[in-house]
Amino acid sequence: MSNTFYAPGEQRAAKVNDLFARIARRYDFLNDLQSFGLHRLWKHRVVDLAAVQPGSHALDLCCGTGDLAFALAQRGAETTGLDFSAEMLGVAKERSQNKTPHSALRTPQFVQGDAQQLPFPENSFDIVTVGYGLRNLTSWERGLDEMFRVAKPGARLIVLDFGKPANALWRAIYFAHLKMSVPLIGLLFCGNASAYAYILESLKHYPAQLAVADKMRALKLADVRVINLLGGAMAINYGKKPA
Ligand SMILES: C[S@@+](CC[C@H](N)C(=O)[O-])C[C@H]1O[C@@H](n2cnc3c(N)ncnc32)[C@H](O)[C@@H]1O
């Protein structure tokens, strides 16, 4: 059965934007609930892989409410978070304002824009991350091309997203969880089952970690790695733009 928030082609972005506008206020709470808090560990892993150096410039695409952007900034990177949803960015900006004066010194800059058409020149960033974003783009390949374009030589490109487990039994169990428990959590705590049923629908249309790694190799990234988490239910793709 198709999902209210999924449409192929040109209508996709408007539907995705509508989805995140509706759930922005409950997004962080629901993330903790549906992942049992594990998304925090996975994001931590992304930030470790980013290997922030003094003076690093970091870009976090599809930053949403800002988890990765805040974490990169806390490690000392001059960080920009980009998202096309005014509502998700609104929550990120409120989080910035609630920081203590000390931690506010390291606060990301939040920019509204399209991850498939970045408003930055080429070779601008030492780190380019995207968490749970690539899967939502009309063209995930175009998103990766843009990540590559704005990355400096030697920059780390890191993608965190839902994955597709290689083991058929585990995949079936995991997809059943995404089909039943996750929309139920969405209905009970956000009043919106479809918004959470969208995760499985979007994953079905996303070729996930192996294809992302192939695309990274096609872009001639170095040190391309797939880090499977929870048996491939989540995955981190890593690659370095050649120096
Ligand atoms: C699942 S949320 C991820 C938020 C955050 N990165 C995290 O890990 O918690 C996906 C985000 O991607 C954003 N998004 C989707 N398509 C986009 C696009 N074409 N350009 C910019 N942002 C986009 C949505 O607005 C939403 O905030």
Topology overview:
Blueprint: H1 12-23, H2 27-35, H3 38-50, E1 57-61, H4 67-74, E2 78-83, H5 86-97, H6 101-104, E3 109-112, E4 125-131, H7 140-150, E5 151-162, H8 168-190, H9 193-204, H10 208-218, E6 222-229, E7 234-240
Parallel strand pairs: 1-2, 1-4, 2-3, 4-5
Antiparallel strand pairs: 5-7, 6-7
Bound molecules: S-adenosylmethionine.
Features:
binds S-adenosylmethionine, alpha/beta, 47% helix, single chain, globular, seven-stranded mixed beta sheet, 243 residues
Q: Can you give a write-up of this model?
A:
The chain is of the alpha/beta class and 243 residues long. Helices cover 47% and strands 20% of the residues. It has helices spanning 12-23, 27-35, 38-50, 67-74, 86-97, 101-104, 140-150, 168-190, 193-204, 208-218, and strands at 57-61, 78-83, 109-112, 125-131, 151-162, 222-229, 234-240. A 7-stranded mixed β-sheet has the order 3-2-1-4-5-7-6, with helices on both faces. β4, α7 (140-150) and β5 (151-162) form a beta-alpha-beta unit. α3 (38-50) packs across α4. The radius of gyration is 17 Å and the shape is globular. The chain starts with 11 loop residues before the first helix and ends with a strand. 41% of the residues are buried. The mean pLDDT is 95. The structure holds S-adenosylmethionine.
